[in-house]
Specification:
binds coenzyme A; Citrate synthase; acyltransferase activity, acyl groups converted into alkyl on transfer; mainly alpha; globular; Citrate_synthase_euk; mitochondrion; transferase
């Protein structure tokens, strides 16, 4: 290991040596060369951060440039705004407000994605009639093109369900109204109507896509239910998953999908959809890209990781798990260098109100009383914040929405992020309609190299 002074000297010498000399004097392999160059760059980054983190470069600080743009206000997003303490508000409505005013499915009590979608798109609370009309429209548009069914059926069962979902969504662009209209030379004021048409068609088809993937991976050879035109989006999704007669799970799914719909624009999946769509790529391609961002373990895949972690804890600790057992397991996770999945957040600094709403749902259901996994989620919530505070790294020691993963009654953990993917379409696609209606431009931030940053700072 080289000392910091030696690394700085090496950095200077690397800069001095000409490209010509490097090209002809060395026979080192690519890997060996990188192994030499990376520590030098790491040291350069460390110095920039510690010595100039707060230095202003143009409109932002060095910390913003090298720190993943945390908290940087640089993006328009209409449907929701996230407050670090209070959590998400959809057009000004908190989660409890939405639970009071947004229509449920006939026979149900929970918010349904259709009413959330209406709110996100329009900023208005729909009537039950408007919600039902939207349910009907989605059901009528919900069937998949034959070639997409064949595409999904051709995937190996071992291909991760999120990869399958992203690929199938991209393939739906075969029928993109936006792309066809663009080729015909549509004018800018028409952009949003074709975007809306694609977005509604995509949301309508997501349950059939996601259910087909579930069937192929976990229950191959079984029949898939057909779409019932009189049912809401999640009623049909639950039917196709094979849980249609489980009212409690269907209601949970409705709430889960409605609440995961939007979390302002800076999160990786929403931001990806927005960025890709700003090139006038159609909504299918834009959302497909978003799904691959969602598939990362620091983002949507965390819900898979939570359940995997919980199941491993259950296996190791057996029955009657105590708070002390969980505490020890949390420390074991942290000391092995892993994050505690389902805890922490890029923006939130309090327990996630979506976590609280889903937890309250489970607490209110007598049939879920005594569920070992729900007990585990609740007990973890009681001890994890103190452990994470003592650990001292995360800025937010509280649960995010993914900490509820185990509350679902099925244990196919690789499927969890797909359900998130069905949901996040509501908000991500809403913004595409608004971006095109408002004529927002191509996103093109300015990047800088570390050398350029240093030069800029020196010349200030
Ligand atoms: C969500 C998450 C990615 C936010 O990242 P972030 O904005 O960089 O969070 P912070 O600023 O609080 O991170 C500061 C440090 O705390 C660590 N940290 C954050 N959350 C942690 C957790 N749950 N367990 C252990 N360490 C955590 C980070 O890894 C980072 O460590 P580093 O300085 O060694 O790189 C992060 O909290 C995390 O990895 N959580 C677990 C995964 C998860 O639940 N994701 C779903 C998010 S909705």
């Amino acid at each position: 290991m080289l000392s910091r002074t030696a690394l700085s000297r090496q950095a200077a010498s690397l800069r001095r040596s000409s490209l010509f000399a490097q090209r002809f004097a060395s026979t080192k392999s690519l890997r060996d060369t990188l192994q030499e160059v990376i520590p030098v760059k790491q040291e350069q980054l460390r110095k920039l951060k510690s010595e100039h983190g707060q230095t202003v470069v143009g409109d932002v600080k060095v910390d913003n440039i090298i720190g993943g743009m945390r908290g940087l206000k640089a993006m328009l997003w209409e449907a929701s705004v996230l407050d670090p303490i209070e959590g998400i508000r959809f057009h000004g409505l908190s989660i409890p407000d939405c639970q009071k005013v947004l229509p449920a499915a006939p026979g149900g009590k929970e918010i349904i994605p259709e009413s959330m979608l209406w709110l996100l798109l329009t900023g208005q609370v729909p009537t039950p009639e408007q919600t039902q009309a939207l349910s009907r429209e989605l059901a009528e548009k919900g069937d998949l093109p034959k070639f997409v069914e064949q595409l999904i059926d051709s995937f190996p069962r071992t291909l991760h369900p999120m990869t399958q979902l992203g690929m199938a969504v991209a393939a739906l662009n075969h029928d993109s109204s936006f792309q066809a209209a663009y080729e015909r030379g549509m004018k800018k004021p028409e952009y949003w109507t074709h975007t809306l048409e694609d977005c509604i068609n995509l949301i309508a088809r997501l349950p059939a896509l996601a259910a087909r993937i579930y069937r192929n991976v976990y229950n191959p050879g079984t029949e898939l239910a057909t779409i019932d035109k009189n049912l809401d989006l999640v009623g049909n999704y639950s039917n196709m998953l094979g849980y249609g007669d489980n009212h409690s799970l269907t209601e949970y799914l409705r709430l889960y999908i409605a609440l995961h719909g939007d979390h302002e624009g800076g999160n990786a999946s929403a931001h990806t959809a927005h960025l890709v769509n700003s090139t006038l790529s159609d909504p299918y391609l834009s959302y497909s890209a978003a799904l691959f961002a969602l598939a990362g373990p620091l983002h949507g895949l965390a819900n898979q990781e939570v359940l995997r972690w919980q199941l491993a804890m259950q296996k190791e600790l057996g029955d009657n798990i105590t708070h002390e057992d969980i505490k020890a397991y949390l420390w074991k996770t942290l000391k092995s260098g892993q994050v505690v999945p389902g805890y922490g957040h890029g923006v939130l600094r309090n327990p996630d109100p979506r976590f609280i709403a889903l937890q309250e749902f489970c607490d209110s259901r007598p049939e879920l009383k005594g569920s070992p996994i729900i007990d585990l989620v609740n007990k973890t919530f009681q001890v994890a914040p103190d452990v994470l505070k003592e650990h001292g790294k995360t800025k937010n020691p509280y649960p995010n929405v993914d900490a509820t993963s185990g509350m679902f009654s099925f244990v196919e953990f690789k499927y969890y992020t797909v359900i998130f993917g069905v949901s996040r379409a509501l908000g991500a696609l809403t913004q595409l309609v608004w971006a095109r209606a408002l004529g927002l431009p191509l996103e093109r931030p300015k990047s800088m190299s570390m050398d350029a940053l240093e030069k800029f700072i020196k010349n200030q």
